[in-house]
Design a protein that fits this description.
Chain B: One of its GO terms (molecular function) is isomerase activity. The structure holds 2 protein chains of 2 kinds. By secondary structure, chain A is mainly β. Chain A contains 2 helices and 27 strands. A 4-stranded antiparallel β-sheet of chain A has the order 1-2-3-4, with no helix packed on it. The radius of gyration of chain A is 21 Å and the shape is globular. By secondary structure, chain B is of the alpha/beta class. Classes of the chains: A mainly beta, B alpha/beta.
Chain lengths: 402, 165
């Protein structure tokens, strides 16, 4: 065994040398191939009830979790959620998800590619001992078609709500000779903090299949999801759905008529936050006939109507990956821009519930590839959470500026 | 032992991936500066550059149609670029190209982890959505088709290139 392994290592080394000569050292998105945070390509944060920062990341084909007591400067020894190298979904909009409940229970979800056709499988797991150990990850649904782009949200009463894009209905469509476009929005909820989930149910057929979802609670017991829908004529424009309760989907409400008729994978999903007063703030990317780029809008009537879309970012600098969060200082938006050499994170803040916004400001930058910029709040302060290849993980306080 | 086995499986996967790239000399790495060299290399000829990826559903449908187009139009230089994010999958990429009848075209695969920079060099407005086709005339005029291309449109463009010649 040992001899065999050595031979393989030697072969890998030779191959590696050959590759190094052929490839630039920058060929990977990851800084390294270990399961450590430094090697992560995607990292997702959550604050615990005691102010502890929790981080889940994917690196080296594994999902790991660690916590920080000093706002991201140092982290605890990581707990490996997975015990072997997996074919984790490495799509641009995929990432592991985390919510931490009031009792400190940690619920996770992540997806893998289950076959060579890139059909996905969503797994969930939970830690009941403060992140020291996690239960064996289990599929969130018994269906074995394809699930990807899961999202988790936590209700006030500790209910964990999960939503994802699911392609199970393409089988019946195919058998009936019908064309099946996109995917479907499915959901399930957990009353035990993410230890078990109810049977998966359909919320909406005919969504785009390759963009992340946004998920929040509009009010106790009422989840709201934002997703790229497929409207009539094949327009892949955005919609929100406010659920009546965690078991009952609501109406699909269009956010804007961008008229992006495209049979392609934008790999570029939206973001949603609900302010304490109930206002929905949404950001999205489109390349439609009506408008192109990143846009923001808000709704004060649960998505029945939205404000006129407001463009974000400098068009010549490829604004991407918008994220929005209502926090203690107001509503914050971040997105990435690229100037030909460096990627920067731009930030703007609204103190009047989205009516007016501060001039965009660069709050971070990096000279190599990076994860999407995310926002997180502990109730006192809003932070930018950003994983970068060159500079590692960063948690940056959003300045409380006038 | 379990850990060792996991490491072993990882190595096998690494070697399989490395071997696949080594065994596919036709699949060229697309890196910083490659775009300009493609433009220079085909200057004065009609070129169709197709950006696609193995994880993209609509791409799987379009690729064989493009293979037929390339076969029917030897006068057009067809170039494909697998623009999925790295880690890219050379073996799967080559296999799909072979099945689509695109083994003998000039085929690239993204080989720089900083994809924003690669895309910016090609088109600063491109956010990475695939499929995407760029039609470059003899004079260098670029027409971009976002999403799946209609073969009729490609035929029309090709005919225009010949009529001008």
């Amino acid at each position: 065994m040992r001899t065999g392994l050595s031979a393989i290592i030697a072969l890998a080394f030779v191959q590696g040398t050959a590759l190094a000569q052929m490839r630039a050292p920058t060929a990977s998105e990851a800084a390294c191939e270990e399961p450590t945070l430094r090697c992560a390509t995607k990292a997702t944060p959550a604050f615990g009830p005691d102010g502890t920062l929790w981080l889940v990341w994917m690196a080296g084909g594994q999902v790991s979790v660690a916590s920080s007591q000093d706002a991201g400067r140092s982290f605890s020894a990581p707990t490996h959620v997975t015990t072997r190298r997996l074919n984790l979904d490495w799509g641009p909009d995929a990432r592991p998800k985390i919510v931490v409940d009031r009792k400190g229970g940690i619920a996770l979800a992540f997806s893998t590619f289950r076959d060579e056709a890139f059909n996905g499988e969503v797994f969930y797991t939970r830690s009941a001992d403060g992140g020291k150990s996690f239960a064996e990850p289990k599929p969130i649904t018994g269906n074995n078609e394809s699930q990807r782009f899961e999202a988790l949200a936590l209700d006030q009463d500790g209910t964990v709500f999960a939503a994802w894009l699911d392609k199970r209905n393409r089988v019946a469509a195919k058998e009936a000779g019908r064309k099946y476009e996109g995917a479907a929005l499915f959901f399930a909820s957990s009353r035990d903090g993410g230890a078990t989930y109810a049977e998966a149910a359909l919320a909406r057929e005919g969504t785009c299949e390759c963009c992340r979802l946004g998920l929040a609670f509009a009010a106790p017991g009422r989840p709201v999801a934002i997703f790229r829908n497929i409207f009539e004529g094949g327009a892949r424009d955005h919609a929100v759905m406010t659920f009546t309760d965690v078991a009952t989907p609501g109406e699909v409400r269009r956010i804007s008529n961008d008229d992006w008729q495209i049979n392609a994978c934008p790999h570029h999903g939206p973001s949603l936050t609900v302010a304490p007063n109930g206002t929905y703030h949404v950001v999205w990317y489109t390349n439609g006939k009506t408008r192109k780029g990143l846009f923001y809008a808000h709704s004060r009537d649960e998505g029945r109507s939205f404000s006129t879309p407001m463009a974000l970012g400098q068009p010549g600098r490829n604004p991407t990956r918008p994220f929005v969060l209502s926090g203690p200082a107001g509503t914050v938006m971040v997105w990435k821009e690229f100037d030909g050499e460096k990627t920067s994170v731009q930030m703007t803040l609204s103190r009047d519930d989205g009516e007016t916004w501060s001039p965009p400001k660069t709050i971070a930058s990096t000279s190599d590839t990076s994860d999407h910029p995310l926002l997180i709040s502990n109730g006192k302060q809003t932070y930018l959470s950003w994983m970068t290849k060159a500079d590692g993980y960063r948690l940056t306080a959003i300045e409380d500026q006038p | 032992m379990r850990f060792r086995f996991a490491g072993f499986a990882g190595l096998v996967a690494l070697i399989a991936s490395a071997a696949a790239l080594a065994a596919s000399p036709a699949l060229k790495p697309f890196e910083r500066g490659t775009w300009q060299s493609v433009l220079r290399g085909h200057a004065g000829r009609p070129v169709l550059v197709h950006f696609w990826g193995v994880t993209c559903g609509p791409c799987k449908v379009e690729l064989p149609l493009l293979g037929q187009f390339a076969k029917d139009h030897p006068d057009v230089d067809v170039v494909t670029v697998s623009a999925d994010l790295v880690p890219n999958l050379p073996a799967a990429t080559q296999s799909m190209l072979d099945k689509a009848g695109l083994s003998s075209t000039e085929n690239f695969i993204f080989n720089d982890g900083f994809v924003e920079r690669l895309r910016f060099e090609i088109d600063p407005a491109w956010q990475g959505d695939i499929p995407r086709t760029m039609l470059i005339s003899r004079e260098g005029t670029v027409t971009t088709i976002e999403g799946s291309a209609e073969m009729a449109d490609l035929e029309k463009w090709s005919a225009q290139q010949n009529s001008k010649h």
